User: Which sequence fits this backbone?
């Protein structure tokens, strides 16, 4: 029993020691227990200087025991205003934009520190930031370029997995838009400021913001986050291809790959746009006025004829599926057993989806192979529906004839009975 008590005591002591170490690790001070003249002074002054005290309580750093001095330096154990904020003791008040990345990087670029709190967290954000457009602008003393705190905040920093964080997936576009959608703020850079407005109208925003599909892309999925930069014209297909892998593979083997490269055209963007990517339709390919193909291909050209052929094949398959679905639906509503052909028709729908992907090859013969099998399935399903309707008509005719025979028999019996009654 004594050994058991000793073991439990050692175990509890170990937990207490670990917690104490975590609170004071790497020279950080536990804000809930240690003396902190920063909190005392800011609370007494009040107003905007007191706000950080409450914010740090829910801050991802504050919850892990980091204090004011962990970031700002100085001596929180000294009640004297001047000595506690002595620059000679490492105190930094509000860091200048050029200081912010190294300010945060003191910990976030130190693998030994970060593995103690989150072993999976990357420690190259500071290096990536230096390579970004924002980082390069900041290095050139641009006071408006985004830094760590522009996106993450400072005293109220939340985990990126926190749904209230400004860098949570559903908030990223709005966070980027605080600068990039402000025409006055961005005036000196000479770049568009309609990206946020366009993104809100896109198929990506619909998936992310309306359907809450967190796998749908937002700004940082295409541009990067800490290393944010606009993708070059030859890199667009690679960027889009991180999600749309098959389309990217087909496009890379298409005649458009070299043509777009030679013209310096932004691959996917040329047909789908970038920030305002809309739901694609079969009318995008073809030779109608609203088709994308006619922007480059003139009547009679090989590309023009190929576009016309591929559009026709897509419409043919889509039309067959619609016809089959309609007749099978009609048969089902009439009570006929058509569950099997209706199920089989789903493979034709899958084939249509596949065919709409295959058009990225820009090769009619490749599309023909993709469409052929699905056309066969759709035609078979349509025939099944027609057979079911013919069977229905046969049953109805048979029922009508049977009823007529029964009616004649009933009338005959009735008349015979009346005749017998008269004879008697």
Assistant:
């Amino acid at each position: 029993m004594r050994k058991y008590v000793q073991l439990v005591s050692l175990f509890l002591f170990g937990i207490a020691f670990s917690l104490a170490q975590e609170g004071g690790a790497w020279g950080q001070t536990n804000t809930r227990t240690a003396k902190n003249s920063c909190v005392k002074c800011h609370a007494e002054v009040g107003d905007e200087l007191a706000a950080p005290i409450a914010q740090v309580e829910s801050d991802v750093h504050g919850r892990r025991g980091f204090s004011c001095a962990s970031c700002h330096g100085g001596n929180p154990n000294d009640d004297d205003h001047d000595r506690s904020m002595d620059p000679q003791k490492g105190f930094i008040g509000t860091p200048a934009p050029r200081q912010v990345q190294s300010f945060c990087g003191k910990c976030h670029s130190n693998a030994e520190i970060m593995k103690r709190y989150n072993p999976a967290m990357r420690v190259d954000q500071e290096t990536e930031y230096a390579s970004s457009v924002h980082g390069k602008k900041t290095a050139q003393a641009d006071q408006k370029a985004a830094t760590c705190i522009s996106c993450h905040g400072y005293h109220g920093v939340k985990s990126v997995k926190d749904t209230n964080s400004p860098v949570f997936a559903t908030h990223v576009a709005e966070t980027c838009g605080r600068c990039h959608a402000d025409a006055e703020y961005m005036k000196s850079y000479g770049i568009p400021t309609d990206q946020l407005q366009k993104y809100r109208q896109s198929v990506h925003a619909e998936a992310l913001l309306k359907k809450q599909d967190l796998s749908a892309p937002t700004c940082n999925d295409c541009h990067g986050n800490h290393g944010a930069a606009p993708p070059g014209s030859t890199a667009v297909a690679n960027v889009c291809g991180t999600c749309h892998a098959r389309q990217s593979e087909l496009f890379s083997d298409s005649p458009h790959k070299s043509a777009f490269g030679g013209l310096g055209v932004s691959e996917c963007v040329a047909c789908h746009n970038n920030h305002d990517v809309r739901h694609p339709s079969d009318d995008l390919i073809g030779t109608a006025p609203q088709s994308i193909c006619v922007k480059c291909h003139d009547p009679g050209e090989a590309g023009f004829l190929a576009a016309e052929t591929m559009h026709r094949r897509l419409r043919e398959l889509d039309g067959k599926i619609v016809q089959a679905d309609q007749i099978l639906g009609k048969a089902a509503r009439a009570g006929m057993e058509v569950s099997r052909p209706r199920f089989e028709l789903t493979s034709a729908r899958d084939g249509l989806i596949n065919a709409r992907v295959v058009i990225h090859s820009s090769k009619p013969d490749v599309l023909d192979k993709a469409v052929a099998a699905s056309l066969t399935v759709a035609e078979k399903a349509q025939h099944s529906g027609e057979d079911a309707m013919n069977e229905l008509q046969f049953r109805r005719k048979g029922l009508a004839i049977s009823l007529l025979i029964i009616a004649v028999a009933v009338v005959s019996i009735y008349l015979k009975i009346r005749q017998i009654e008269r004879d008697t």
Observations:
- The two ends are 115 Å apart (CA to CA).
- The CA atoms of residues 116 and 330 lie 65 Å apart.
